[in-house]
């Protein structure tokens, strides 16, 4: 199972995400790095965890309040590997798509037709099925129709992000039953290697992780397996 470190960007800094309440996010304080600047945080993560992918959420772009496209481009030039998965709220996709793997967040989608158009334009895109509580965000019917999805799908349970509550195992299991041929990636709540084992047992393809990495709860040896 692939592990993908998560970096959340807000107002020019990396922030610590907590349960999807973005107005409360504060600059990251991490034992891995004394800075909350994107390049320094990413460098610290990659120095400890030689991963294949990094996930970046541009929270300003998602909210329609500016973006961090220049910083993301600079990060790509500094670290051409690993591959960046970027949710920019559908902002500057043409500019970013040559450098990163676009993540199409369901909360940013206006319609199923828009998703189809974006999938045709960006065939490498990942779909993030975003949930706030029990409510799927985005166009009606999207969360229940795998025929509309690309091969790689993230289940983003916002209430579990940074919560130490554990991953959303029941919903992940239901998603695997609904879409057995898709690669499902879990986002939110991963605390430890034991959680990774539970996800692996469900057949989950990858896990997006932030807090547990910064707190040292997942050893570097585990993330590279």
From TrEMBL:
Swiss-Prot/TrEMBL keywords: Amino-acid biosynthesis, Histidine biosynthesis
Q: Which GO terms of the molecular function aspect are on file?
A: 1-(5-phosphoribosyl)-5-[(5-phosphoribosylamino)methylideneamino]imidazole-4-carboxamide isomerase activity
Superkingdom, natural source: Bacteria
Q: A single GO BP annotation from the record? A: L-histidine biosynthetic process
Q: Which Pfam families does the record match to this protein?
A: His_biosynth
Cellular component per GO, a single term = cytoplasm
By what name is this protein known?
A: Histidine biosynthesis protein
Tell me which species this is from. Thiorhodococcus drewsii AZ1
């Amino acid at each position: 199972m692939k592990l993908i470190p998560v970096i959340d960007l807000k107002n020019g800094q990396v922030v610590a995400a907590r349960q999807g309440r973005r107005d409360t996010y504060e600059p990251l304080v991490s034992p891995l790095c004394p800075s909350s600047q994107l390049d320094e945080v990413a460098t610290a993560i990659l120095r400890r965890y030689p991963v294949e992918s990094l996930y970046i959420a541009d929270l300003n772009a998602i909210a329609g309040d500016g973006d961090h496209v220049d910083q993301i481009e600079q990060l790509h030039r500094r670290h051409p590997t690993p591959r960046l998965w970027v949710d920019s709220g559908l902002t500057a996709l043409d500019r970013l798509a040559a450098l990163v793997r676009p993540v199409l967040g369901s909360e940013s989608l206006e319609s199923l037709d828009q998703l189809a158009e974006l999938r045709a334009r960006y065939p490498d895109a990942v779909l993030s099925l975003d949930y706030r509580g029990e409510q799927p965000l985005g166009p009606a019917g999207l969360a229940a129709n795998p025929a509309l999805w690309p091969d790689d799908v993230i289940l983003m349970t916002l209430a579990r992000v940074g919560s130490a509550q554990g991953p959303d195992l029941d919903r992940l299991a239901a998603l695997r039953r609904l879409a057995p041929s898709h690669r499902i990636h879990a986002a939110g709540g991963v605390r430890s290697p034991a959680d990774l084992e539970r996800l692996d047992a469900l057949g989950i393809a990858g896990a997006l992780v932030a807090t547990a990495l910064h707190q040292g709860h997942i050893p570097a040896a585990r993330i590279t397996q």
